[in-house]
Known about the structure:
This protein is of the alpha/beta class. It has a single domain (about 5-105), classed as Ribosomal Protein S5, domain 2 (2-Layer Sandwich). Helix content is about 35%, strand content about 25%. It has three helices and five strands; from the N terminus they run βαβββαβα. It has helices at about 10-20, 50-70, 90-105; strands spanning about 5, 20-25, 25-35, 40-45, 75-80. Strands 1-4-5-3-2 form a five-stranded mixed sheet, with helices on both faces. A hairpin with a 3-residue loop joins β2 (about 20-25) and β3 (about 25-35). α2 (about 50-70) crosses α3. The longest helix has 17 residues, at about 50-70. The radius of gyration is 13 Å and the shape is globular. The two termini are about 20 Å apart.
Amino acid sequence: MKYERLKKSWQFRTIYKEGDKYFSKLFILYVLPNNTRKIRLGLTVTKKVGISVQRNRIKRVIREVFRLSEGIAPGNDLVVIARRSAVNLKYSQARDSLSYLLHRARVLESKRS
C-alpha cells in the first residue's frame, strides 16, 4: 500500500490533539480522518526506546509493515509511537501488533465482494 509520510510538527500535534488513540504492548496508534484519498503515516520513536541504530531499525520495520499491508482504508492520518518494549522488535511481532491496532481503530477496509 502506498502512503505519504507526515513530517511537520504541526501535523503531529493536530493528530495527537484531535485523533483517536489506541494502545498495544508495543505501539500507540493515533488515527484522524484527513478528507483525502491518501494514507499519511507518521512515526515517533523517542530516545527512551534505545540508541539510534535500534530506533532506526524500528522505523524501518514499521514502514515495511505498512508497505506490505493490504486493505488500509484511504483517507486517514496515522501516527505510530513505539514504546520501550519495541526495542528488540521482530517483523512478525510488529505486523501482528499493528494489524491488531488497525483492526481496533476500524481503518481496515472490509473485504466484501
